[in-house]
Write a structure and sequence with these properties.
eleven-stranded mixed beta sheet; two-stranded antiparallel ribbon; 4 helices; 224 residues; alpha+beta; single chain
């Protein structure tokens, strides 16, 4: 009898863990850009470090799942960051950073709070100090070709925009390129890409920018 009670207890724990894992499962597309090349050679990276690379845009489109009990399928959130140094530089403290979080106008009040919490969890310290939260229509499109990503677009109202394309042979400028910096957040799969357009025109960060044709983007997916 005792053996059956132990087996029943173990089964209940496993079932509960599985249910919790399922309830917390969330996945979708991810697009990132920054003001420094992420796919580059050391010579190019060294010429940019401490000069640029302290701005970034991080965008998530949730295809399925929930967060803090709110269903988020089809909704998006964008985080715009201004740090104190080149993001990804292991020799510099880029914190504290300031952030503006843009939430999908289609979301309900409860979903907006969940989107903010999700973005801050995924972005960590980079998005923890949100100086403003904006509400805007957000459209994120990512082209999937098997496990290859490259072409993507992000439009968050008139505040932020990204357009990317896949890397090509002409993007190998020195022949020693690599993914010099990893993505700023957890991804299940991502690939570096060229940011045809990377722009932010909103308030809160004390700066706006429009950058073109930099090897400064990541396109991929997330799941947790």
């Amino acid at each position: 009898m005792r053996r059956y009670l132990i087996l029943a207890a173990v089964a209940a724990i496993v079932l509960g863990a599985s249910s919790t894992s399922f309830a917390q499962q969330i996945s979708g597309d991810y697009v990132e850009t920054r003001s420094a090349d992420v796919y580059t050679g050391p010579c190019f990276a060294n010429s940019e470090v401490n000069l640029v690379g302290n701005e970034a845009i991080m965008a998530w489109r949730i295809s399925q799942g929930q967060w803090e009990g709110a269903r988020l399928e089809g909704l998006s959130v964008v985080g715009v960051v201004r740090a104190n140094g080149t993001l990804g530089d292991p020799y510099e403290n880029v914190l504290p950073a300031k952030a503006v979080i843009i939430v999908d106008e289609k979301a309900t009040p409860a979903q907006r709070q969940a989107l903010i919490s999700f973005a801050q969890c995924m972005g960590g310290d980079l998005l923890s100090n949100a100086v403003r939260v904006e509400v805007a229509p957000i459209d994120i499109q990512v082209e999937h070709v098997g496990m290859h990503f490259g072409k993507a677009s992000v439009q968050a109202g008139s505040l932020a925009g990204i357009q990317t394309r896949a890397l090509g042979a002409k993007d190998h400028l020195c022949g020693n390129e690599e993914t010099f910096y990893p993505p700023l957040t957890e991804t299940s799969h991502s690939m570096p890409a060229v940011a045809l357009v990377d722009q932010y025109n909103g308030p809160g960060l004390g700066v706006s920018w429009t950058l073109r044709d930099k090897r400064s983007a990541f396109v991929g997916s997330f799941s947790r």
